[in-house]
Automatic annotation (TrEMBL):
Transmembrane segments: none annotated. It comes from Cupriavidus malaysiensis. This is Lysophospholipase. It comes from the Bacteria. Signal peptide: none annotated. InterPro entries: SGNH_hydro, SGNH_hydro_sf. It holds the Pfam family Lipase_GDSL_2. Residues 52-225 form the SGNH hydrolase-type esterase domain.
Amino acid sequence: MLLLYKGVLGPILLRQAHQLRKTALRLPEAAGPRMGQENAAAPEAAPLRLLVVGDSSAAGVGVDQQHEALAQPLARLLAARTGRAVTWQLVARSGVNTVEAIELVQASEIAPADFIVTALGTNDVTSQRRPGRFLKDYQALVEALFRRSGAAGLVVTGLPPLHILPAAPHPLRWYLGRYAARLDRLLRRWIDQEARARYVSLQWAAVPEEMARDRFHPGPLQYRRWVEMVAAQVVDLLALRTQQGT
């Protein structure tokens, strides 16, 4: 059905997409370190190691500093909840889709990690990558990350609710929302079958007034809620790993 909609609405969608690219406010990635350690004074237990990989949202677009974004606050919250030191690394770049994320990871030094967090998919929607190709590339990315980091668990963030995207007009907003929902279903179905993985939905973020001033990326309150949801899943995976004695 999406192909039918695209065929019928194609000229309008192309015109609106072109106009959006011309007029969209482009915010920078959050400033600050891309790796570090939280709760360095924690006693005895080995540090928990965290790797965050993704696109502009993972890179902190929408807030000014990394301590307001995803990776560093997540490490800080996990340190508080586990009583352990948490080392963290962020590998993210604005505009990347899944296949470009593979290239980014291949060109990056990846530190050993216990848990991986990913945030990708929006740029697969805007670049109109086929759903099957998107999923295969995502799976290839995850396998590469597991292999290179030695991680034991994964938390995958779903696609954002593009159907409410304030920066995009209708029918472009509606079409992007439908496409994002399709990719998100594929992603969740895959993750639900993976014992070592957890899925975090972003559908709660359909609150335009809480978004960043570009009307596209998360705002500070949304980053904080996102961090809390991801942390809960990492803690769950950590408890599972402890029970299994690994």
